[in-house]
Amino acid sequence: MTPKYKKIIDSFIKDYDNNNILPGDTLPSENELMKEWNCSRDTVRKAMTVLAERKYIQKSQGQKSTVLNRKEYEFPVSRITSFQELVKKRNLNASTEVVKFEIVNKSHYIYNLFNVPKSEKILEIIRIREIDNEKIILDKDFFLEKYIGNLNKEIAGGSIYEYLENELGLKIDFAKKTITVEKPTKEDLKYLDLKKDTLIANIESFTYLEDNILFQITYSRHRSDKFKFFDFAQR
């Protein structure tokens, strides 16, 4: 049986995620919550403490708790999920700006990572992802040009994977991912809305087609205060 304090927490988070509770709202008093949930004061306080620790609310001595602005966006680590898929799934207010779309110089370090000859052409795409009027993701993608057909800047402003899979029929098989937390670079500071001392969560992805063909390398740089990354593990 689920403990009562966890039910209070789960109910709050559900209302928060569905915008039934908004930042700036005040919660009912301890006495009111005790009556609503038919529980003890200790149970209410335990639930409020957990919500405060998770940055959902701010507790004040002798006053009602205030709901904080705690918007985090979840990205599954174990799946290849595009930004547009996240936007559709979460019904987010989001946009994409393409700030770079060009073939890289033959001396670019990325040739070594792809392990291809200089005769191959590699396309670099840099996109700023904005959610709720905040620029919080900087995506840097490198593609082997021979696999991406007539991909253009307009398509890149939407969903590249939708074009590759539905128009070109590419079979994207798997990706190797590495997640690191770093200080922001000059490029991050230039393109993202960063607060003082905000760290960057960088997801480096090497994405493969069928037959183990590496066709894409991505550096997806996220504001660390806006995202959490999750996986599902079984013993």
Instruction: Please count the beta strands (DSSP E, at least 2 residues each).
Output: 10
The H-and-E topology, N to C, reads as HHHEEEHEHEEHHEHEEE
Report the end-to-end length measured between terminal Cα atoms. Answer: 23 Å
Radius of gyration: 22 Å
Described by the principal axes of the CA atoms, the overall outline is elongated
Helix content: 25-40%
User: Would you identify the regions where 5 or more consecutive residues have pLDDT less than 50?
Assistant: none
Overall pLDDT score: 91
Oligomeric organization of the protein chains: single chain
**CATH top-level class of the largest domain:** Alpha Beta
The total number of structural domains is 2
The secondary-structure class comes to alpha+beta
What characterizes the major β-sheet?
6 strands, antiparallel
- At the fourth level of CATH, the homologous superfamily of the largest domain is Chorismate lyase-like
Strand order of the largest sheet: 4-5-6-9-8-7
Q: What CATH architecture of the largest domain would you give? A: 3-Layer(aba) Sandwich
CATH topology of the largest domain: Chorismate lyase
Strand residue percentage: 25-35%
Helical stretch tally: 8
